[in-house]
Amino acid sequence: MAKINPLVALPPLVFAGLAGLFIFGMGREDAQQLPSSQIGREAPSIASVTPLADLAPLSDDMLRTGGVKLVNYWASWCAPCRAEHPQLETLAEEGVTIYGVNYKDEAGNALKFLGELGNPYAAVAQDEPGRTALEWGVYGVPETYILDAEGHIAYRFAGPITVEIMEKYIKPEIARAGQ
To answer: Which ranges of the chain would DSSP assign to H, the alpha helix?
Structure first.
């Protein structure tokens, strides 16, 4: 009878362990609440972003006028962005203005993503080099900022917006920013 090398089972066990840690970490609420020095400050300029194809372009004026709005950093290569997309569509259907900033992505891939999943954004910009995201303090995508009517950052959420997070954090913060 041939002996089986116990090291053969090691890679799948390591992978399973890392996957378990990842899933556990994504579910922790305190992991979503990374600090931001931007809270209360005027939203950084988006002058260095470019339009994304023929979609409505995002401008600095849009961030600084009107009511409460969300700025969502996303990318087509980002699996959590795909997971949060239905919640963004729900918010847009409920009348929340959402502006999208496509992060370090190719325009064709971004357009395909929006073509497949729908476009919840009132206006979209592309930040292919990632400079604007750096000025905003983006840790990674997806990341969402709630701006008040004057364009000040009222709240920041790092990570995918789930239904639970939308109800527990995002909607209450939108209401607070509108007061």
So the answer is: 10-27, 29-32, 60-64, 79-93, 107-117, 131-136, 163-165, 171-177
Q: Side chain identity at 55, as an amino acid letter?
A: L
> What is the pLDDT, as a whole number, of residue 28?
46
Strands 50-51 and 97-103: unpaired
Report which DSSP code applies to 57.
Answer: B
What crossing angle do the helices spanning 107-117 and 79-93 adopt, rounded to 10°? 50
pLDDT one-digit tens code per residue, 128-138: 999 999 999 99
Torsion angle of C-alpha atoms 130, 65, 120, 73, degrees rounded to 10: 20
Residues ≥6 apart with Cβ < 8 Å to 50: 125, 126, 128
**Distance of alpha carbon 144 from alpha carbon 74, whole angstroms:** 9
Q: What value, to the nearest 5°, has the Cα angle with vertex 84 and ends 114 and 90?
A: 80
pLDDT score at 5: 67
Distance CA 104, CA 93 (A): 27
Percent of the chain at pLDDT > 90 equals: 75
Does 174 have pLDDT greater than 70? yes
